[in-house]
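Throughout our pipeline, every protein is held as a single compact record rather than as scattered files. Nothing more is needed to write down the fold, since each code stands for a local backbone conformation. The record that follows is passed on verbatim for readers who wish to inspect the format.
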Amino acid sequence: MSYKSVNIGKHTIEVPIVQGGMGVGISWDQLAGHVSLEGGLGVISSVGTGYYENRAYAGKLVSERPLDALNFYSKDGLMAIFKNARKVCGDKPLACNVLYASNDYGRIVSDACEAGADIIITGAGLPTNMPEFTADYPDVALMPIVSSAKALKIICRRWQKRYDRLPDGVILEGPKSGGHQGFTYEQCTMEENQLENLVKPVVQEAENWGGIPVFAAGGIWDKNDIDEMISLGASGVQMGTRFIGTYECDAHENFKKVLLNAKEEDIELMSSPVGYPARGVRTNLTGLIDARTGPAIKCISNCVAPCNRGVEAKEVGFCIADRLSDAFKGDLELGLFFSGTNGYRLNELISVKELMKKLTTGE
């Protein structure tokens, strides 16, 4: 199967592969820039931009960590990331992933638009008011992430009624993705929630609203998976974990090694301060969390609203901002390393160019 370009609002991606937005610092300027350069949609994560270039844009620090959401989601850091990504991909479409659960969500979306994002992608909640924050940027396309046809219907109804607009694209994320899930523990294993069973109803719902392009995500690994999703009606796919296995991925070399060394049974669901399970690699940290002997939880960065200023972090035994940033710094003892279910299949590092060729030709 050869692939067609896809229009997302006023923007066209030549290859229907969206690279997943992975924070803290896993998908920043180099990864996103090179994916867009190769015709896919590179996605810059807005999470933890205060850590960019060794905290050069963090503003105020406490214990070497950006203080509060204003500095954790640093506007200056995000601007610098976009500027450097543009040096790689020029004027090709470039997206920004902004978690709906983020403290300062509206401000971060505005910052991303100002930084030059062509497309905003939002998951980690139902972004019913997303268009409010891009009103001054009519050319910026909006792509919510959903886990069901019902969720897409709610978003479309609300957006049409309140803002007289609809999503320009939608990402359907099944329960095999890395990081946070849109399902409870029990729902993650239910047959009806597996990606291949969700695509058709979500595509049908998207058709009801004028044919919004749907990108399937969660467990997509190779050309066969992409072909399967397109044959089910998706316009394309989103892939995160596979891109960690590239030279250009902004992750620390130790992060890449954790995945290269991981076995299938090492990748598991865990509780998270966000309130939904998250998927990552079992490491030294997960043992400490299980024994309740992990690092002290101080909530310096105040990253996500559902955590309730560290209350939920204390409940599950770790601060997500601190542990993801430790993984970004390559700390094998205290880092939290997110991965989709297929992360164990990474066995070598290749270039983004080579990976995009593999994904589109199967060779």
User: Anything to note?
Assistant: The chain has a mean pLDDT of 95. The radius of gyration is 19 Å. The longest strand covers residues 141-146. The chain has two domains: 6-252, 255-328.
